[in-house]
Every structure is written in C-alpha cells, then in structure tokens.
Amino acid sequence: MGESRIRIGLLGYGTVGSAFVDLLESQKSTILSRTGLELVVTHIAVSDLNKDRPGLDTQTVLTDKPSEVIENNEVDLVVELMGGLLPARDLVKAALEKNKPVITANKELLSKEGKYLFMLAGERNVDLLFEAAVAGGIPLIRVLRESLLGEPVEKIMGIVNGTTNYILSQMEENGMPYSEALLEAQKLGYAESDPTADVSGQDAASKAAIIAMVAFGADVSLDDVLFEGIQNISSADVAFASRAGCAIKLLAMISKHGHELEVQVYPALLPNSHPLSSVRDSFNAVFVEGTAVDSLMLFGRGAGGMPTASAVLGDVIDAALNLSNKTYRGMEDLKEVSLLPSGEQKSAYYVSVQVVDEPGVLATVALVFAKSDISIQTMEQEGMGREAHLVFITHEVEESRLEDALSQLSNLSCVEKLGTVIRVLEA
Ligand code: NDP
Ligand code: HSE
Fold first, then answer.
1. Residue 338 domain-assigned (yes or no)
2. What is the pLDDT of residues 31-43, one digit of tens each?
3. One of 100, 112, 207, 256 is an active-site residue; which one?
4. 80 in ligand 2 pocket by Cβ < 6 Å?
5. Residue 415: exposure state from Cβ atoms within 10 A (0-12, 13-18, ≥19)
6. pTM of the predicted model, to two decimals?
C-alpha cells in the first residue's frame, strides 16, 4: 500500500478539538498501517492564544487567525470544530472554494446553511462530512447515507441531545435539581457554549433538520423545525412520570405522513417498555423504521470530547482516503417538501394545572375538558391550598383542540397557573 501524508488544519481546540488531536495521536500508527495514510495536524486556530494548552505538540502552528489556516498551501484538509454560525460559515466556504475537504461537527451551521455548502462542495468535487454533527459518537449519518441508502425510511425518532438527556436522567434518578444538573452537563463538556441551545430544543432541532436532509433528501432548515425544550419541566413532572411508569425524554421526530414530512422536537412521556426510555445520562439513541428493514436502533454517547472526536476521526480518514484517491462523496440534491402543519398531529397529553384547593374546582376544570371533547385517561391531585396541582393524562386529541382547552383553563379564576403540558407516547 502506498503512503500518503495528509496535513490537517484544525479550527478550534476546545472540548472536541483537543480530544480529536489526542485521539489522532494515539491512533496514528494504526491508521497508517490500515490505510497507508499519515495524518498530521499541522495548524490549529483558536481564539485566545494566551490560554494554557498542556500537551499540545510544540511543532504545531497555533494561530488566532483561522483564515490563515485555510489559505495555507501546506494544509490539505480542514476540520472545523469552533462551532457557531460565524465565522465558521465563511471559513468552511473559503476552504471548499480552495478545493479543500472539510469535516465539521457544527450542526448549527449545517442546519442553517447546509444546502448551500453541500452544493458548493459538490461543485468543487470535495467532501463536506459531518458525522459528529448529529448524535455525537453514533455513526448515524454513515448508516443513513450508505447502509440505508435504498431503504424506504418511514420514521426516525431519536434522543439526539446529550445535555438534556443527562439533565432529565439526573432529575429522575438522583433527584438533582434542573439547574444543578445543567451545571454538571456544562462541566462534563456536553453543553453548547450557550446551553440555551440545548435546553430550548434548538440543538436537537438542528440535528432533526440534518437528519431530514440525509434520510429524506428534504430541503429542510432549522427555521422549518418546530421545537420545544425542557426548561419548564419540573422535578414534580419527572416524579409523576416515574410513578406512571414513564420517563420524560426530549425527542426529535422526523416522520412521513403521506406526502408530508413531520420534523419536530418536543419532550414526551415514554412508557418504560419503550426502548428509548432506558437511554440515560449523555447517551443518545436513534430509532429508525423502514418498510424493508422494519425497526433498528443505534445507541451511543451523544456528547463529550472523545465520543465526538471518534466520529470526527472516522470522517477525516474517509476524506483523506478520498483525497488521495481523487474522489469524494457528494450529497444528493435536496428537494422541497411539504411539512406537516403544526396543530394537526394527535397525541395523548400530560397536563399539570395549579389550582385553588376548593370544593368544585375539579368539576370546573373537568368541564372544560368535557366541553372540548377531550377524554381523560387518569387524574391525580398533588399538594393542598395554593400549592394544589391537578395532573391529567388525556386520551388522544389534536394539538389545536388541546391548545384551545388550555386557553380556556387559563381564564378560570380557580386556576392559579397552567403547569407543564407534555405529549404522552405509546410503547
Ligand atoms: P468549545 O467551546 O469547547 O471549543 C471551541 C474552540 O473553538 C475553542 O478552542 C475556541 O478557542 C475556538 N474558537 C471559537 N471561536 C473562534 C474564532 N472565532 N476563531 C478561532 N477559534 C475560535 O466547543 P466544543 O469543542 O464543545 O464544540 C465544537 C463544535 O463541536 C461545535 O460545533 C459543537 O456544536 C460541536 N459538537 C460538540 C459536542 C460536545 O459534546 N461538546 C458534541 C458534538 C458536536 P479558545 O480555545 O481560545 O477558546
Ligand atoms: N450540546 C450537544 C449535546 C453536543 O448535548 O448533545 C452534541 O451535539
């Protein structure tokens, strides 16, 4: 096997970037003997040159000018691990325009500018690979683009955010308050630089858009994805779900409904018998349903330096091999699709309502559900006085009809506050 030396320019040396350099260093000789490729990180761009970077090879050029890394003729391939839309977009564009393959873990960038960047990579005949952008260390993108290329995929449902899954697991298993669990997730390197992206559901929504592009060839961007997060989920909601034999999970749902595609992110109560409900900690899992394959599930660490670096390294080896073989793997042209309008889906719901604890209140609240033709599966009262909560699980109802009932409930004088409203899914 002939040997070829590929020089890598790395943009970003944070949680993932530094893990990538360490992983590559430890695997260098194995990669060389398996592929004939000598992979060397020659240049690294960071924002703060004064930060201590213990262990970094002194021969690597460190700069705070990422464009110089792209322009440098001694850089063959670019790995973007800075995150954020700008300047990442301009740097990735500049690298592709110089016919340099790009590997990125940046879901925000791809969910906003993916269509344009994939087209540019295609025009330049170079790779733009992004395994690490969805579900961290799980090789989901490769499975969708290669193994399932001919599969009539019907539905993909996944836990694709490690931070929120970690928070929900800590709340459920250890009774940890939400804010403390979020701080832990940040310390462990799971969260985005602004963790609002995680807890609001936006990070998972970016991943849902990318999954829709890859699995359905759909021209879907972050703006098209309806998303809800976990900021309003309380310890009481998690405890109720647990008593009801369920776990609360933040789900990305990408699903065909006739000619329409549903692309949404929302928290849901999942019965313990559902395989996704046992996915804890920073693990992610993605459930794929196809007409031929039936069901399959991919499981692994969805966040963290090393698991994500593993996905980045796989892409780097792929792109480096393609570069030395003068080939690349393009994305298909993305097609316009009709998205399922909000409000039309049916689901059972968990509804928590803070009420005044007085005679007749339950009947008044129940009457609103009855008049809206919403049938109740179970009801529980928690607490007393001004802290009384009524917790309902409804039978299936259209989202728009439930919203109408909720607005009526919020106008009742006996209702202090509407609490959490969460979908309840079947096993
Ligand atoms: P970090 O915040 O830990 O690291 C970002 C790195 O980029 C830092 O080295 C920073 O420099 C550098 N940087 C930021 N802005 C600039 C700039 N303008 N010019 C030069 N360098 C810059 O992020 P992560 O490693 O956590 O994430 C990187 C990417 O990977 C993101 O797109 C993220 O969404 C994605 N990702 C992250 C995962 C995770 O678990 N953390 C998992 C999957 C994907 P400095 O060191 O000086 O601050
Ligand atoms: N912040 C992201 C998460 C990183 O928690 O899943 C992985 O994409």
1. no
2. 999 999 999 999 9
3. 207
4. no
5. buried
6. 0.97
